[in-house]
């Protein structure tokens, strides 16, 4: 299958880069820091879980900006994007393979981080209010909420370079944190940077048994906007890449 061959080729490209190491070390470090802090933190259970997941939601845009920049620079250094652009009849598939690789690594890193945290939280700190199924669903929520961010960053990193991607990630992290305050209560369903933090917060609230009836309309709007946004953004990104001929500065 063509896509599998392209994915294998993309994996081989990452061998001599810090791409894989980043996806292994960052989850380990983040979960370790939170678990170490929670060994003596006076916060209650719900506060600890909420802070961890909202921290992930705020930090992910920066990590996404970094890894998309790595992927883009690897292509630039390997031959000014000619490997991606040379296969005219499979041009869109090469783009899809790179995006899919980023998403697969993201999924793995998110599950790794949450697995480390949940095991430590349950087995070491004996916080057993939630079972592992809660954490698995939380990982899926975080991943799904950031798919559109990956599409955006792959476009920015290919079109404008690593500095733009990393800089955008920092700005996005601030926006995520800002939308978690009262300023985002009415607008978060329509902004990609409000989805992850609010989706995960609502999942926590529902899981502790609180009534979210008054928030169901916002949740429904957010889910529709998220799914629709991913589809539209992906289609637009494919149309852009089909006509893209590399960065002007690379010629």
Give a quick rundown of the structure.
By secondary structure, the protein is mostly helical.
Search tags:
251 residues; 9 helices; transmembrane helix; Lantibiotic immunity ABC transporter MutG family permease subunit; membrane
Structure explained in plain terms:
The protein has about 250 residues and is mainly alpha-helical. The chain is built from 9 helices and no strands. It has helices at about 1-15, 20-40, 45-80, 80-85, 90-125, 130-160, 160-180, 190-205, 215-245. Helix 6 packs parallel to helix 9 (about 215-245) and helix 8 (about 190-205) packs antiparallel against helix 9 (about 215-245). It is globular, with a radius of gyration of 19 Å. The model has no long low-confidence stretch (mean pLDDT about 90). It comes from Lysinibacillus irui. Keywords: Membrane, Transmembrane, Transmembrane helix. This is Lantibiotic immunity ABC transporter MutG family permease subunit.
Assembly category: single chain
The residue-averaged pLDDT reads: 90
Number of helical regions: 9
How many strands, what sense, and barrel or not for the largest sheet?
none
Strand fraction = under 5%
Residue share in helix: over 70%
How many strand units? 0
Structural class: mainly alpha
